[in-house]
Specification:
Layout: E1 9-12, H1 23-35, E2 39-43, H2 50-58, E3 63-68, H3 70-76, H4 85-105, E4 108-111, H5 122-136, E5 143-146, H6 159-166, E6 172-175, H7 178-184, H8 188-194, E7 201-204, H9 219-229, E8 234-237, H10 244-258
Parallel strand pairs: 1-2, 1-8, 2-3, 3-4, 4-5, 5-6, 7-8
């Protein structure tokens, strides 16, 4: 565990050029190191040099915890549940490429927006998503099917729905997100307990979609639930920002406060 946080803390960064030549990116890595973060989730558009990224992050005591697929999916119009077979197959191919890259970095791949948008035909989308996930099963970097609210996606709004899609598929897990859970679940703690065998990463985002500490969710209670479960995975801050660097500092202080009393 981190000395500062109850559980290893990562963060999903907004899309940016993730290399040593980007001074802003390097400044953020430096700040994350100073604040005690363990790693980053990155929205990438290139997947050709995992070694360089791994070495850069390591120089700041960080690792790549997740490849986020959302920005790439938006840019290329990809959907795993599209009725258009060419679109669906392109999405599967993209995730295979991300999976190979993530595997070189010891990371996972987030399958959130890429699973499909809201207001799709439920039956068709379900059939297409199942077909896509079946094509992605097997050994390799884990793929995390994120439960996102019904305003954003037709499928997998709750952890229960995510569990229905991934159970029995090797290499696939679910990804809880406290923002989406606050909308869709009857209780965040109950859902985390019920499906604790299916996730090893938890997104921390407040009820207003800003970072923890800027809204109304009690993240100390979330930490208490994870501690009672003997949770051995990581957590990752995600959400909108007022100012990225300032918000990182605020949420780190808040989550450190929530972590007081936990044994490191």
């Amino acid at each position: 565990m981190s000395e500062r946080f109850a559980f290893p803390l990562c963060i999903q960064l907004p899309p940016m050029v993730a290399d040593a030549g980007n001074a802003d990116f390097v400044d953020i890595l430096r700040l994350l190191q100073a604040e005690g973060f363990a790693g980053v989730e990155l929205n990438l558009n290139r997947f050709d040099d995992p070694d360089a990224l791994r070495k850069l992050l390591s120089s700041f005591g960080l690792r790549l915890s997740m490849v986020a697929s959302g920005a790439y999916a938006v840019k290329h119009g990809l959907s795993l549940s599209s009725p258009d077979e060419s679109v669906r197959e392109a999405a599967v191919a993209a995730l295979r490429n991300m999976r190979a890259f993530a595997g070189e970095c010891g990371a996972g791949v987030i399958c959130g927006f890429i699973k499909g948008a809201a207001k799709e035909n439920y039956g068709t989308a379900t059939c297409q998503l199942r077909k896509s996930l079946a094509a992605l099963t097997g050994a390799g970097a884990p793929i995390y099917l994120e439960a996102t609210n019904h305003y954003e996606a037709t499928l997998v709004n709750t952890l229960e729905e995510g569990a229905d899609f991934v159970r029995g598929l090797d290499g696939l897990r679910v990804l809880p997100d406290t923002y989406h859970m606050n909308i869709e679940e009857t209780g965040i703690a109950a859902a985390l307990v019920r499906h604790n065998d299916l996730y090893a990463n938890l997104h921390l985002s407040d009820n207003n979609r800003y970072f923890p500490g800027f809204g109304a969710i009690d993240f100390r209670a979330v930490y208490d639930t994870l501690s009672a479960l003997g949770y051995a995975g990581v957590t990752a801050v995600e959400g909108r920002v007022h100012s990225l660097k300032a918000d990182i500092t605020v949420t780190a202080a808040y989550l450190a406060h929530c972590s007081r009393g936990f044994r490191a």
